[in-house]
């Protein structure tokens, strides 16, 4: 079964320890709607763009 984990913009930014506004810009560049739930694959692409490990390590 494929993971169907989704994130909202604030969650994703917090997980990546990155500015939400910058995450929003990157999501738009990737063709994703920042106002919709962000899927695992899209989150991984954002993480890659900002050079963060994905999936994030549990705190």
Topology:
Layout: E1 6-7, H1 9-16, H2 20-29, E2 38-39, H3 40-49
List its traits.
globular; 7% strand; mainly alpha; single chain; 59 residues; 47% helix
Strand content bin: 5-15%
The ordered H/E elements are: EHHEH
> Tally of extended strands?
2
- Low-pLDDT segments: none
Computed Rg: 10 Å
Provide the structure class.
Answer: mainly alpha
Biggest sheet, open or closed, and with what strands and sense?
A: 2 strands, antiparallel
- What distance lies between the first and last C-alpha atoms, to the nearest angstrom? 25 Å
For the residues shown, what is the average pLDDT?
Answer: 91
Number of helices: 3
Strand order in the largest sheet:
1-2
Tertiary shape: globular
Helix content: 40-55%
What report would you give on this structure?
Helix content is about 45%, strand content about 5%. Strands 1-2 form a two-stranded antiparallel sheet. The chain is globular and about 25 Å long. With about 60 residues, it is mainly alpha-helical. The protein is built from three helices and two strands, in the order E-H-H-E-H. The termini are far apart.
């Amino acid at each position: 079964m494929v993971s169907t984990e989704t994130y909202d913009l604030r969650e994703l930014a917090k997980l990546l320890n990155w500015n939400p506004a910058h995450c929003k810009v990157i999501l738009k560049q990737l063709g994703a709607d920042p106002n919709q739930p962000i899927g695992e694959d899209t989150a991984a692409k954002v993480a890659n763009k900002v050079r963060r490990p994905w999936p994030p390590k549990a705190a």
